[in-house]
Amino acid sequence: MKKMYTLALLAVGMLSFNANAQTEEEKAWMAYMTPGQQHQLLAEETGNWDCEMKFWMVPGAPPETYKSVADIKMVMGGRYQEGRYSGSMMGMPFEGLSTVAYDNAAKKFISTWVDNMGTGMMVMYGNLSKDGKTITFNGEMTDPMTGKPCKVREVYTIVDKNTRKLEMFDTKDGKEVKSMEIVMKRRA
Questions:
Q1: In the predicted model, what is the mean pLDDT of residues 84-107?
Q2: Are 94 and 114 in contact (CB under 8 A)?
Q3: Cα 107 to the center of its chain, rounded Å
Q4: What is the DSSP string of the chain?
Q5: For labelling, which of 22, 49, 56, 132 has a CA lying 20 to 30 Å from the CA of 6?
């Protein structure tokens, strides 16, 4: 029993010593895991949003329009933004799930998207503009028509405290075309 007590005291002493003398690796991990200014920017979107969606199935043709709602919140201690979207599209129920992160080590935003209108996942990486109002993401998804990767670009604009605008561009046959636009209004 005395030996276990001595080992416990030694362990507590070592933990106290390590807390005061962090290694460079521990400092790096602490910086990596601590939410910062970009995470606060994501947190400002917490709440419920009404979404007006436009989709251009054929370049130059009138867009198809739909409505959805979004519930956005921060998860995992304010480290990630989660958005759950629901509505109706093409006469079918629609649901989507987004995650947005700011990777402190990579110094980039990362966005993922999945929905019930497909079976793939879109992953994009982005940077915030100098004025702090726009994140431009670039990535790729699989084109269902060809089964091949398709480059995508998303421009996410903070219009004002209660309005956001998301524009999506696809590159097909070497040409970038606008395929989607969503205007989000915060619910009162």
A1: 96
A2: no
A3: 14
A4: -HHHHHHHHHHHHHHHHHHHS--HHHHHHHHHHS--HHHHHHHTT-EEEEEEEEE-SSTTSPPEEEEEEEEEEEETTTTEEEEEEEEEETTEEEEEEEEEEEETTTTEEEEEEEETT-S--EEEEEEE-TTSSEEEEEEEEE-TTTSSEEEEEEEEEEEETTEEEEEEEEEETTEEEEEEEEEEEE--
A5: 22
Spatial contact of 101 and 90, defined as CB atoms under 8 Å apart: no
Strand partners, 108: 103
Q: Residue 112 — φ and ψ, nearest 5°?
A: -125, 150
CA distance 135 to 108: 10
CA distance 79 to 127: 17
Are 67 and 182 a contacting pair, CB within 8 Å?
no
157 has pLDDT over 80: yes
Q: How deeply is 172 buried, as exposed, middle or buried, from its count of CB atoms within 10 A (0-12, 13-18, 19+)?
A: middle
pLDDT digits (tens, 9 = 90+) for 57-68: 888 899 999 999
Please write the tens of the pLDDT for every residue from 116-153. Answer: 999 999 999 999 999 999 999 999 999 888 899 999 99
